[in-house]
């Protein structure tokens, strides 16, 4: 489960329901281990009796939300998103921002299934250039 570190009650309930559903299906739920969507999914999975693994950006297992049963302290910051992409077999992205987008990209690069639930539509906010010279000009603007 990947998604926003902060979210509203409706988004949290969606994430909690997905976490619960995955646990009921016998899946281990892996998240980034912090708050928001990660905590809601962890809670849903734990309440359903599932195993919850949190791949933390910090080097402190105490930073995990209270529903994580196996905290993995990486000390990698945002680079932990690559570890998460290597660890999980498939992904559900709920809401999210740039960190979630990076996790989606890492997962897709690894050929893994990503299911989006109220998340990125992947119309990326890129400024397009037609030539190398234009690319340089646009960067320097």
Description:
This protein has 141 residues and is an alpha/beta fold. The chain has a single domain, classed as Rossmann fold (3-Layer(aba) Sandwich). Helices cover 40% and strands 17% of the residues. The protein has five helices and six strands, in the order E-H-E-H-E-E-H-E-H-E-H. It has helices spanning 9-24, 37-47, 80-87, 98-109, 132-140, and strands spanning 2-3, 29-31, 52-56, 70-73, 90-94, 113-117. The strands form two sheets. The chain has a three-stranded parallel sheet with strand order 1-5-6, with helices on both faces. The protein has a three-stranded parallel sheet with strand order 2-3-4. Strand 5 (90-94), helix 4 and strand 6 (113-117) form a beta-alpha-beta unit. Helix 1 (9-24) runs parallel beside helix 2 (37-47) and helix 3 crosses helix 4 (98-109). The longest helix has 16 residues, at 9-24. It is elongated and about 55 Å long.
């Amino acid at each position: 489960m990947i998604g926003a570190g902060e979210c509203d009650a409706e988004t949290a309930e969606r994430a909690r329901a997905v976490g619960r559903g995955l646990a009921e299906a016998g899946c281990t739920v892996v998240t980034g281990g912090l708050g928001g969507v990660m905590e809601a999914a962890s809670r849903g999975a734990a309440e359903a009796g599932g195993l919850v693994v949190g791949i933390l950006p910090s080097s402190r297992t105490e930073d995990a939300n209270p529903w994580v049963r196996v905290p993995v302290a990486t000390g990698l910051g945002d680079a932990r998103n690559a570890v998460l992409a290597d660890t999980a077999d498939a992904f559900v992205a709920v809401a999210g921002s740039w960190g979630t987008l990076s996790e989606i990209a890492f997962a897709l690069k690894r050929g893994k299934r990503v299911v989006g639930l109220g998340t990125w539509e992947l119309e990326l906010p890129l400024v397009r250039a037609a030539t190398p010279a234009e690319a340089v000009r646009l960067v320097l603007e």
